[in-house]
């Protein structure tokens, strides 16, 4: 009986561990022993982390339902004459928490984008002199014609708002894919 | 080679493998987050499936570690 207890305490026959019981090994009184992590514990810990990462990956995959920009709400922005050539206008679409910017390029083309920089969410502005969209926080630059990043840290394009001109009035009608 | 020293080598290798797969999973997660923000949803589910497969590999290795310990205990009793 005594022998079987000894084996249970020290299953691999470790000579150094023979003097200590399992409980003493699990709850050592020395600081060095307290911070000691065995390979088995590390594998257990990493496997637990691996499970959490897999769960987080599934949460991301299912989270697309919540971030999808499929608003088709039509919102009146104002008269077209208010947006002068080589000028810009700020508006909110589809709700008050989503700032956007409408721009009339020197060529007379109307475009609108989300005003939230895709790098770190600063508000972008229209740089009239250079005819580009500029994020003043980290000098990120976007192409005014399609919203793609052309300089600085941003890597994703600005989400583009669909615009429609009806009876000389501007309407935002949704997001472009 | 004793069972204990075999186990030490084996667990070092398993630990290295598990750590590598966890790093891969971390990369998959950051890639998925980036894809989510870019609104390109086609890669999200395959990335999640790949991450689950890696987790299954890790769980299998952990199970092997437990089985190895059980075997070692049995052989020590003999």
List the helices and strands and how they pair.
The complex is a heterodimer of chains A (177) and B (78).
Chain A: H1 2-9, H2 22-26, H3 31-34, H4 39-62, H5 64-67, E1 75-79, E2 87-92, E3 99-104, E4 110-114, E5 125-127, E6 132-135, E7 140-143, E8 149-151, E9 160-166, E10 169-175
Antiparallel strand pairs in A: 1-10, 2-3, 3-4, 4-9, 5-6, 6-7, 7-8, 9-10
Chain B: H1 3-37, H2 44-77
The count of β-strands of chain B is 0
Number of domains of chain B: 1
How large is the count of helical segments of chain B? 2
Tell me roughly what share of residues is in helical segments of chain B: over 70%
C-alpha Rg of chain B (nearest Å): 18 Å
How many discrete domains of chain A?
Answer: 2
Descriptive key words:
heterodimer; A: 177 residues; alpha+beta; Rieske Iron-sulfur Protein; 2 domains; 6-stranded antiparallel β-sheet; 4-stranded antiparallel β-sheet; 5 helices; 25% helix; elongated; disordered N terminus; B: 78 residues; mainly alpha; 2 helices; 0% strand
Structure description:
The complex is a heterodimer of chains A (177) and B (78). By secondary structure, chain A is an alpha+beta fold. Chain A has two domains: 2-66, no CATH class; 75-175, Rieske Iron-sulfur Protein (3-layer Sandwich). Chain A contains five helices and ten strands; from the N terminus they run αααααββββββββββ. In chain A, the strands form two sheets. A six-stranded antiparallel beta sheet of chain A has the order 1-10-9-4-3-2, with no helix packed on it. Mean pLDDT of chain A is 82; it is low at 1-9. Chain B is elongated and about 60 Å long. Helices cover 88% and strands 0% of the residues of chain B. In chain B, helix 1 runs antiparallel to helix 2 (44-77). Chain B is mainly α and 78 residues long. The longest helix of chain B has 35 residues, at 3-37. Classes of the chains: A alpha+beta (177), B mainly alpha (78). Chains A and B meet through helix 1 and helix 4 of A and helix 1 and helix 2 of B.
């Amino acid at each position: 009986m005594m022998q079987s207890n000894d084996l249970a305490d020290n299953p691999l026959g470790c000579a150094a561990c023979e003097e200590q019981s399992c409980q003493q090994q699990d709850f050592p009184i020395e600081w060095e022993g307290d911070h000691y992590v065995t390979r088995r514990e590390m594998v257990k810990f990493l496997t637990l982390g691996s499970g959490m990462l897999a769960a987080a990956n599934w949460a991301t995959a299912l989270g697309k339902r919540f971030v999808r920009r499929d608003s088709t709400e039509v919102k009146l922005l104002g008269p077209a004459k208010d947006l002068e050539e080589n000028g810009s206008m700020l508006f909110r679409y589809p709700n008050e928490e989503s700032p956007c910017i409408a721009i009339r390029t020197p060529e007379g083309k109307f475009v609108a984008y989300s005003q939230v920089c895709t790098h770190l969410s600063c508000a972008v502005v229209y740089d009239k002199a250079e005819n580009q969209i500029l994020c003043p926080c980290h000098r990120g630059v976007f192409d005014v014609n399609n919203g793609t990043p052309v300089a600085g840290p941003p890597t994703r394009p600005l989400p583009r708002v669909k615009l429609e001109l009806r009876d000389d009035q501007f309407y935002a009608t949704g997001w472009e894919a | 080679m004793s069972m204990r020293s075999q186990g030490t080598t084996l667990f070092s290798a398993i630990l290295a493998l598990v750590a590598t797969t966890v790093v891969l999973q971390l990369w998959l997660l950051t890639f998925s987050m980036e894809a989510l923000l870019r609104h390109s949803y086609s890669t999200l589910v395959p990335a999640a499936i790949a991450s689950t497969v890696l987790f299954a590999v890790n769980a299998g290795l952990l199970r092997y570690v437990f089985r190895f310990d059980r075997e070692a205990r049995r052989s020590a009793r003999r």
